[in-house]
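Input record, target 12 of the design panel.
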């Protein structure tokens, strides 16, 4: 019982619990994106601006929307909006043999004067 009392009376555990509660609160109230494909919309706008005669403001907008930093930000926005966080792994080849022989592995640690190298 003394161990549990010590664990639960630690300030760090209290702080961790507060952080956990804040994250859970944010998770319940997280805003939903208005648009899941902002990069596609920007591509459409750029295409429209390039095909029509443009004034100075439209030229400036076209230049801003064409910058690599803004495009990268929009791609990241779309990734987060679609909650597509897992890396895309290539498919296994058709001739993949999962009955491969296991190889033994030796782990070696070198020590000099009682200190790891």
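The sequence produced for target 12 reads:
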């Amino acid at each position: 019982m003394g161990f549990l009392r010590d664990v639960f009376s630690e300030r760090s555990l209290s702080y961790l619990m507060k952080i956990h509660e804040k994250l859970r609160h944010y998770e319940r109230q997280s805003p939903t994106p208005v648009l899941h494909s902002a990069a596609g919309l920007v591509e459409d706008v750029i295409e429209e601006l390039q095909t029509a005669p443009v004034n100075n403001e439209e030229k400036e907008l076209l230049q801003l929307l064409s910058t690599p930093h803004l495009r990268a930000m929009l791609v990241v926005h779309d990734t987060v909006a679609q909650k597509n966080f897992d890396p895309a792994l290539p498919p296994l080849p058709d001739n993949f043999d999962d009955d491969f022989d296991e190889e033994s592995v030796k782990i070696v640690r070198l020590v000099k004067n009682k200190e790891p190298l």
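The chain has five helices and two strands.
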